[in-house]
Amino acid sequence: MTQSVTQTPAQTLTPPKQWQQFVRAFMKNKGAVLGLIVLIIFIFIAFFAPWLAPHDPYELFQGKEQLPPSFVSGGESAFFLGTDDAGRDTLSRVLYGARYSLFIGLCATTLSLLIGVSLGLAAAFWPKVIGKVIMLVNDILMSYPSLLLAIIIAAILGPSMTNTIITIALVCLPPFIRLTRATAMVELQRDYVTASRVIGVGTVRMLFVTVLPNCMAPLIVQATMVFSSAILEAGAIGFLGFGVQPPDAEWGAMLGTARQYIQSNVWLAIFPGLAIFISALAINLTGDGLRDALDPKLKEVS
Predict the structure, then answer these.
(1) Percent of residues in the chain assigned helix, strand, coil, to nearest 5
(2) Is the four-CA dihedral 283, 286, 290, 291 of positive or negative sign?
(3) Digits of tens for pLDDT over the chain (302 positions)?
(4) What distance in Å separates the CA atoms of residue 87 and residue 169, rounded to the nearest whole number?
(5) Phi, psi angle pair for 89, to nearest 5°
(6) How far apart are CA 105 and CA 99, in angstroms?
(7) pTM
């Protein structure tokens, strides 16, 4: 006679994996989901701008200068968002501007992350000499307002997209250095680090393979915030004339060009400014969702 073994529901259910918990926590934040969707749309626009733009962003339409949007009296259907002071299609330039602004923000954030993490780890591992020097320079950089520091560096390097990326990367360094150092100093006191030292793990491997992965959660959140700040900084530098130069279709440069026509044709400034605002807001919302999903203290106990 055989006995049938029945499994209770508690035995059949398996706990969700870590990535499943992350996705569930992120999806609960409706604002973060909306921000991610908008960010994906902007990335899609940046990649497919040549096919989405109705006109060449550099094409000059004679006699069509400073047309208002087509939905406003005086506009033309061929130019949905109107034209700029040189007769170029505003919609096409805003679409192409996503390429410049997102590329500058992404490159500056990546460069700042790589340098900041390396310096932060060095400051945590050698706190007596190297750490003091790094944190002293870091405190000096943080004592300046970020926009003022960006303007000074951009004025020294000169106006170009490459120099804009370098400028923003330098301005965004301090938060990465401080956060990496603080997180790494906590991790260096853990037992697994002591065990790694006992078995003879090298310094570089210990910092970048053993310690760094355990510091990535707050760094990912910080990177999203810096990405948003980088887009705003690029727009501000371009507006002041120290960034990407006209006729390149960058949102900040478009705002700088529209500055002198703000009273006669406010539409020239509204659309690139709105693009900067929406993209920065979407990235911030996504970063908030990542913070809530990655921080165990903020997760709901089920």
Answers:
(1) 70, 0, 30
(2) positive
(3) 445 455 555 455 566 666 677 778 778 888 889 999 999 999 999 999 989 999 888 888 888 888 888 888 877 888 888 888 888 999 999 999 998 889 999 999 999 999 999 999 999 988 888 889 999 999 888 888 888 888 888 888 888 888 899 999 999 999 999 999 999 888 888 888 888 888 887 878 888 888 888 888 888 888 988 998 899 888 888 888 888 887 888 888 888 888 888 888 888 889 999 999 999 999 989 888 888 777 655 554 43
(4) 34
(5) -65, 125
(6) 10
(7) 0.84
CATH number at residue 230: 1.10.3720.10
Kindly state whether residue 19 falls inside one of the protein's structural domains: no
Domains: count for the chain: 1
- 227 and 283 Cβ atoms separated by less than 8 Å: yes
3-class DSSP state of 114: helix
Whether 130 is covered by a domain: the verdict is: yes
Residue 197 within any structural domain of the chain: yes
Look up residue 248 and give its DSSP letter: S
Sign of the torsion formed by the C-alpha atoms of 60, 63, 66 and 69: negative
Q: What is the pLDDT of residue 74?
A: 79
Contacting residues for 69 by C-beta, under 8 A, at least 6 apart:
75, 79, 80, 81, 82, 90, 267
My answer on whether omega of the bond before 57 falls inside 30° of 0, hence cis, is no
Interaxial angle between packed helices 161-171 and 173-187, expressed in degrees from 0 to 180 and rounded to the nearest 10: 40
What is the rounded distance in angstroms from the CA atom of residue 124 to the CA atom of residue 134? 10
Residue count of the chain:
302
Report if residue 145 sits inside a domain: yes
Query: Could you tell me the residue range of the domain that residue 218 belongs to?
Result: 101-295
Which of 154, 156, 155 is CA-nearest to residue 171?
A: 154
